[in-house]
Protein: Phage integrase family protein
Amino acid sequence: MNRLVFQIFSETGMWAKEVAFLEADCLETARYEGAVKLKYIPYKTLKARRRNGIGEHHTVYVSPELAEKIKKQIIASEELRRKHDLPYIFLHQNEGYKVAMLNVEYFIKKINDLICKYGICDNGDELWNFTSRQCRKTLVVNMIENGATTMELVYQLGHLSQSTVMQYYAEVKSARLAEMNMEFFNAQFHLLLSKEQLTTFSEEERRLLYVDFCLGKRRVEFGFCTRKLCEGACKSRSRSVHCANCPHLCTGIKYLPFWKQLLQDQNERVHGLLKGYQQAGIASYEEYIECRQEKQLLAAYRNIVETIEGSGGDCK
Structure:
C-alpha cells in the first residue's frame, strides 16, 4: 500500500489529505481510448469551488499502470469498507485494533527512516527530509521543463487561478539559472553549445536564450543562432556561406544526418567544379572566388560533421 501511495503522490501531485480520502469510485473512464481519470476532492480549494458553483470533485489523468494498482486496492479494501460502511480505499485493520485510514504522517516517517538507513542526502550533503509536498513540486518542475503551459499546470494541480502556478514558474526559473550551463542546453535541446558561445551570456541573458530556444525564435537551418541582438543585423546573410561557418551557429547530434548529406552533396559539387576547370584547361582556378567559396563551404560542413561526431552529442 505504501508504494501505491508514493506513486500516486509522484504521478498526480495530489495533497496528502486528497490521497488519504480517495473513495471506491475514484476511477473514471476518460473519453480518450485507454485513458483513465482519478477523481478526488481538492480539500484546499473546496470552499472556493462551492462559492463559485464548481463541482466538489476534480479529476486528473493517470497512467494505466497506476489505475490498475488502484483497482487492486479498491478490491482489497472492499470487505473493510462494507463492514464499517466507509467509502475510503486506504483502510487497514490490525488484529485487536479498530479499522484505521491512511496515516500520512506515519507514511512520511517510514520514508524518512529509509532515507536515514541508506544515507540518502540532498545537494548540500545533508540527509534528505522527505515531505509529500516535494512530490507535488517535483511534478511541477518536470512539467515546466517539458513545456507545460500555465493552464495545464492549473488543471493538473486543481487550482482555481494562475497566481499560485506563476509562483512555481518563478521558482523553477530562478532555480535553473545557475544550472544553465552547456550540459543543461545540450540536455534540453540536444545542441552543442560551446564555452565560447555561452560565456558571453549573463545569467539573465541565458534565461532569455532558453526562452527563445523554447519558442523557436532563434531557429536557423539545422540548429539555432546564439548571436546577441545588440550586435545588430546578421553579417553572414550577404555571404555565399551563411550559418555553416558562423561562430554563432549552435547545432547538435540530431542534425548530423542532414550535415552529412550536405557534406556529401558539397563534396560532389566541388569535385564536379574542379573537373570542369581541368576539362576547360584552366590551371589557375584556385584563385577563383567561386572555387574558394565552394571549398570554404565544404570545409565548414566537414568541420561541423567532425565536431558532432567527435563529441558524441555532448558539449565540449
User: Anything to note?
Assistant: The chain has a mean pLDDT of 83. The longest strand covers residues 36-40.
